[in-house]
């Protein structure tokens, strides 16, 4: 039997300067290809958990395993983020001076793809999220929904096995939110990637294989 | 793509930073070109004299202070291996004196070469001269630049050094300070400067196969007041010219520091403004090295464009400078000077961007993403 996509063991994250315990011992397992939705109020620790799983941050104690490999033993977390994880942020975090294509190319630069490969892949991904008419638009000229779709395309750039979304619909209206989630599900269906989304919007639990709730740094 | 767009985002700031580098490099090029031009003029003058050696007073820091007695001149003249000796004097007439001579002249000073009528140092002007060489004490031959700026023609009179000279010849010279000067009988300079029968320096023409080192050693051993050098070593012997070099490099250094601080400031502000973007780059997998290289490349791009502009501005500035500055200055460029200027620009870009680049590369992705 294959290793789970994600396994965390007793994850603790403390911020000593601010005397805050964001995670108080979280153990969770997500099988490959599953969609896990984690709900909870602001400050419950769900974004911190996502950041630890995505190798953006390191735990105070405990361990994260991606596909059976411990992140603590990884010498190059940049490469893990580049190749294995695709992030979708609430505020999309596009580079404002770049076009849609160029924004999608950014993660591919991290893995040394050629210019031609990057461009072809970026166009393919942007077309798949319905932005074939916005390929060369500067990020600041896109609507909120369009920006988030570019960020979905960017998350898929290096064909990651894991897609992590932090309130991906948190900055758009509900109708646009539905379109964005449809787009994410379609991308997941095509890629077969594991999807973890943290949110406090119950609408996002639709279609989830599992929904977990967090409060005060613990899974309920 | 990203580097260029980042720089174009704050066009005014990038332009100002680029101009800071350009002006710094332009100062290096312009000052060095003029300083090297001056030295090159001296070298050309010495070479043009046809003499192999120069004898000066050992105690004089600059040739204008040198005095060689008549007996010393005779001693040198009679040395074996010496074919001919051209005694020489010179003085420089200040601009304010020239203003009285010719109102409204552009000349800020006039170099007066005192030469013996009929001597080789006078005869060298014969080819191509308008008019003739001087024969009497009240006759002068003028360089073409000096004649133009003093607005005098052949046959005109020129009052200076407490007498009235008649302009009997106008010569051309590719040595700027010679073209902006004049040649008169040495005896007039000797009287005016109360030199008696001593001269300032002696140009030595050696016989075929004569050993200049042997002649030098004899002169320095027997006439202890004198020093003998090869004419080609003139600019090295008079190390006062080194002060010009030092001045040039100090002015250049100040300009360069200002340019470097401009890049540092630009890149620090750029990193601070783009903290969140740098966080995004790190979040999607960019390594610290990639972020470091991106910021360094931005600094280097500014410095490359600024440096190239500086090379052009420097050459243009130097040429403009010698038009406005006192006559007699010249410029000299070399590939090495341009390479030095451009290398300094690159170094400024690199070191100016290094600290901001290190700061950017050390940002934690999670902290950078939270940055407001």
Order of helices and strands of chain A: EEEHEEHEHHHEHEEE
Beta percentage of chain A is 25-35%
Report the average pLDDT across residues of chain B: 88
The pair of chains with the biggest contact is: A-B, 27 and 23 residues
Q: What is the alpha-carbon Rg of chain B in Å?
A: 29 Å
Fraction of residues in H or I helices of chain A: 25-40%
Radius of gyration of chain A: 17 Å
Largest sheet of chain B: 10 strands, mixed
Strand order of the largest sheet of chain A: 6-7-8-3-9-10
Folded structure, characterized:
The complex is a heterodimer of chains A (220) and B (372). By secondary structure, chain A is α/β, with parallel strands linked by helices. Chain A has a single domain, classed as 3-Layer(aba) Sandwich (Rossmann fold), CATH 3.40.50. Chain A contains six helices and ten strands, in the order E-E-E-H-E-E-H-E-H-H-H-E-H-E-E-E. Chain A has helices spanning 46-53, 77-84, 100-110, 115-128, 144-155, 174-191, and strands at residues 6-15, 20-30, 35-39, 61-66, 69-70, 85-88, 162-166, 194-199, 210-215, 218-219. The radius of gyration of chain A is 17 Å and the shape is globular. The two termini of chain A are 28 Å apart. The mean pLDDT of chain A is 91. Chain B has helices at 2-9, 11-49, 70-77, 95-101, 120-123, 144-150, 176-179, 186-192, 212-222, 234-237, 240-273, 275-283, 288-324, 335-361, 365-370; strands at 53-57, 82-94, 109-115, 130-131, 139-143, 157-160, 163-171, 181-185, 201-206, 226-230. The radius of gyration of chain B is 29 Å and the shape is elongated. Chain B folds into two domains: 2-41 and 241-370, no CATH class; 59-224, no CATH class. In chain B, strand 6 (157-160) and strand 7 form a beta hairpin. Chain B is 57% helix and 16% strand. In chain B, strands 1, 2, 3, 4, 5, 6, 7, 8, 9 and 10 form a ten-stranded mixed sheet that branches. Chain B has 372 residues and is α+β, with helices and mostly antiparallel strands. The longest helix of chain B is centred in the first third of the chain and has 39 residues, at 11-49. At the A-B interface, helix 2 and helix 3 of A face helix 1, helix 12 and helix 15 of B.
């Amino acid at each position: 039997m294959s290793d789970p996509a994600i396994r965390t063991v007793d994850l603790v994250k403390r911020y000593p300067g601010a005397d805050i315990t964001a995670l108080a011992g979280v153990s969770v397992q997500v099988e490959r290809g599953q969609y896990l939705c984690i709900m909870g109020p602001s400050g419950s620790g769900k974004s911190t958990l996502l950041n630890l799983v995505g190798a953006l941050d390191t735990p105070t104690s405990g361990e994260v395993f991606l596909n059976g490999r411990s992140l603590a033993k990884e010498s190059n977390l940049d490469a893990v983020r580049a190749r294995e994880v695709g992030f979708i942020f609430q505020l999309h975090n596009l580079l404002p001076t770049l076009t849609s294509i160029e924004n999608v190319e950014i993660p591919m630069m991290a893995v040394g793809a050629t210019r031609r490969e990057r461009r072809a892949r970026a166009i393919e991904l942007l077309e798949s999220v319905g932005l074939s008419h916005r390929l060369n638009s500067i990020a600041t000229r896109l609507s909120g929904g369009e920006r988030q779709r570019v960020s979905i395309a960017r998350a898929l750039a290096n064909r990651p096995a894991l897609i992590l979304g932090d309130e991906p619909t948190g900055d758009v209206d509900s109708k646009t939110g539905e379109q964005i989630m449809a787009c994410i599900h379609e991308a997941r269906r095509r890629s077969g990637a594991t999807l973890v989304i943290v949110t406090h919007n119950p609408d996002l639990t639709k279609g989830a294989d599992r929904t977990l709730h967090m409060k005060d740094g613990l899974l309920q | 793509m990203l580097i260029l767009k980042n720089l174009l985002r704050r066009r005014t700031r990038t332009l100002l930073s680029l101009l800071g580098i350009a002006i710094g490099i332009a100062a290096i090029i312009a000052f060095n070109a003029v300083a090297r031009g001056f030295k090159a003029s001296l070298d050309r003058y010495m070479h043009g004299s046809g003499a192999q050696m120069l004898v000066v007073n050992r105690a004089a820091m600059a040739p204008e202070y040198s005095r060689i007695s008549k007996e010393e001149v005779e001693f040198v003249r009679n040395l074996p291996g010496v074919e001919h000796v051209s005694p020489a004097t010179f003085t420089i007439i200040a601009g304010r004196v020239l203003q009285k001579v010719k109102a409204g002249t552009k000349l800020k000073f006039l170099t007066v070469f005192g030469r013996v009528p009929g001597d080789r140092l006078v005869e060298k002007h014969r080819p191509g001269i308008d008019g003739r060489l001087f024969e009497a004490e009240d006759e002068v031959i003028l360089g073409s630049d000096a004649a133009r700026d003093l607005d005098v023609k052949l046959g005109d009179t020129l009052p200076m050094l407490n007498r009235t000279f008649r302009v009997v010849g106008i010569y051309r010279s590719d040595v700027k300070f010679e073209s902006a000067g004049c040649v008169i009988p040495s005896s007039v300079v000797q009287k005016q400067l109360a030199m008696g029968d001593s001269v300032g320096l002696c140009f030595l023409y050696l016989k075929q196969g004569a050993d200049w080192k042997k002649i030098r050693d004899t002169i320095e051993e027997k006439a202890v007041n004198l020093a003998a050098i090869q004419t080609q070593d003139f600019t090295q012997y008079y190390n006062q010219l080194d002060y010009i070099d030092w001045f040039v490099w100090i002015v250049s250094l100040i300009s360069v520091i200002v340019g470097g601080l401009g890049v540092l400031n630009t890149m620090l502000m750029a990193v601070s403004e783009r903290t969140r973007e740098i966080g995004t780059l790190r979040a999607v997998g960019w390594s610290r090295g990639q972020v470091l290289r991106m910021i360094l490349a931005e600094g280097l791009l500014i410095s490359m464009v600024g440096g190239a502009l500086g090379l052009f501005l420097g050459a243009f500035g130097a040429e403009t400078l010698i038009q406005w500055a006192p006559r007699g200055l010249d410029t000299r460029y070399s590939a090495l000077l341009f390479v030095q200027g451009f290398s300094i620009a690159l170094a400024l870009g690199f070191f100016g961007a290094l600290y901001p680049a290190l700061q950017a590369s050390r940002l934690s992705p999670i902290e950078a993403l939270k940055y407001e």
